[in-house]
């Protein structure tokens, strides 16, 4: 991934946040609407990590600091090969500092923009790895609530074969921690407000209802459909489009139609009851010599 030089004023600010720690600034991976991700060096271990910071002008906005704290709390409960790993967290001068493992590669969103749709075997593998990470999160009492291609990273640094990058789930900033620490406010867990990205939202998320783990399985169904077909499973009026095999013919196994149909049920009671059961069905489409995804 390209590394950018940090302008002097921002570099000074990051240096202040790192003062007294064992980390030093190396460069920037880029900025978004909410913040910027930097590369830092652990001077004791001589290893690089990612530092996630919120833009200074957003620090005073209600809930911004708490969301990053929530993300840190969620990741602290997870240690899984398909979830980005939390390394460190602290707050300096009101600024939360989130240190994560440094990944190499690209997001699934960038990959889909490049190729539009993926071969069935690759889409199924990515789906299995993502569901494996989600299953672990759900067992830990964490609902991600914003599963989408932008939050699924294809990491080449941890892959045995660079042609088959490891999926890492990112950005637990709007996650729901079912049993948060008592000193952590329940940010974004109330009903009545939309949470997530509209294109991948479950029907209950669109209705701003209380969400559970089944909202993640629905969103993952949307992602899987998009990987296979090149676009989402619904039109602009949220009407369901044809199953993948009807749209693309024999290139898509009919078994995938049934799996996606259950994952994308509008009524959550009719969906897969867990990410693990969704994963179990999807695993049946992987080659027999493939090791089962860990969770």
Give the N-to-C terminal Cα separation.
28 Å
CATH class of the largest domain: Mainly Alpha
Main sheet overview: 5 strands, antiparallel
* Poorly predicted parts: 187-191, 291-295
SSE run: HEEEHEEEHHEEEEHHHHH
Strand adjacency order, main sheet: 1-2-3-5-4
Number of domains: 2
Q: What's the CATH architecture of the largest domain?
A: Orthogonal Bundle
Query: What is the beta-strand fraction?
Result: 15-25%
Mean pLDDT: 88
- Number-wise, the strands total 10
Query: Could you say what the CATH topology of the largest domain is called?
Result: Transferase(Phosphotransferase), domain 1
Structural class label: alpha+beta
Number of helices in the DSSP assignment: 9
From the alpha-carbon coordinates, what is the Rg to the nearest angstrom?
19 Å
Instruction: Name the helicity range.
Output: 25-40%
Characterize the overall form. globular
**What is the CATH superfamily label of the largest domain?**
Transferase(Phosphotransferase) domain 1
